[in-house]
Amino acid sequence: MELRVFSVALCVSIFLVSKMAIIKKYKSKVEKITNPIPGIYTISFSSDKKFIYNPGQFLHLALDEYDGAGQWPESRCFSMQSSPDEETLKITFAVKGKFTKRLANELHEGKEVWLKLPYGDIFDRGHSKENCVFIAGGTGVTPFLSLFTHESFREYINPHIYLGFRSKEYNIYERELPSVALSANSVALSVPKIFLEDIEGIIDIKSIFTENGTNSDYFISGPPIMIKSFKKYLLSKGLEENKIRTDDWE
Ligand SMILES: Cc1cc2nc3c(=O)[nH]c(=O)nc-3n(C[C@H](O)[C@H](O)[C@H](O)COP(=O)(O)OP(=O)(O)OC[C@H]3O[C@@H](n4cnc5c(N)ncnc54)[C@H](O)[C@@H]3O)c2cc1C
Fold it and tell me: How remote is the CA of residue 94 from the centroid of ligand 1, in Å?
């Protein structure tokens, strides 16, 4: 009996370890920078080592010099926007404070930076893949893009996507749509409902809940204030807490 309990525990541990990604440091080079609207930058990085991560995960980016072994320098977190199958790794950041101002000023094509990844498990925690609801505000759409362009998104049946942007110019999803649509792995994405703040106001969580109810799993990514209020609303409507997964950017 004891041997059986031990074997089961061992199998569970092996399974968990195999699911856990190993965090690695990558000396990386900035390949491309795009700055389509003031204050928003999309950066592609390359590295000698293949970047290993799952859709929806995030990295730590350090700007200062580093020897690869000592004390990790000051860094900030950014979500991977690219699919793990892509050769380069892509992020998008909005200039907010001291560190992102430095990124905007100091990053240039060819610059070397250090990345440490992967972190997070938003899409790796068990959930039903039928009728999932994806809600993102602004640059918060990036972890979703990483999933939508990955083969694992084929497993999602009838996804519902709701995105909010300040105005048309801030719609990263539309800008990235060609690569999303052309990706060999992408499935027929349901057309997202886009809320443009300057025209129709912020994302309407009440109508989203009316459309989807309590049987769906909800993924929410974006500013902490949005996540907090949407989560509070969904819980007040009786949605179980384990059906709400968030990617908090704080
Ligand atoms: C999981 C996750 C994913 C994210 N993904 C993205 C993304 O894809 N795109 C994006 O634009 N933003 C993303 N963010 C937010 C981003 O990491 C920054 O926190 C945000 O852009 C704030 O700007 P800043 O770092 O320039 O501000 P700063 O004013 O430099 O710092 C903001 C906060 O960082 C903390 N901080 C200050 N100094 C240090 C230090 N020395 N070391 C560590 N922390 C310090 C403090 O709490 C401070 O208030 C993500 C955050 C998280 C947690």
Answer: 10
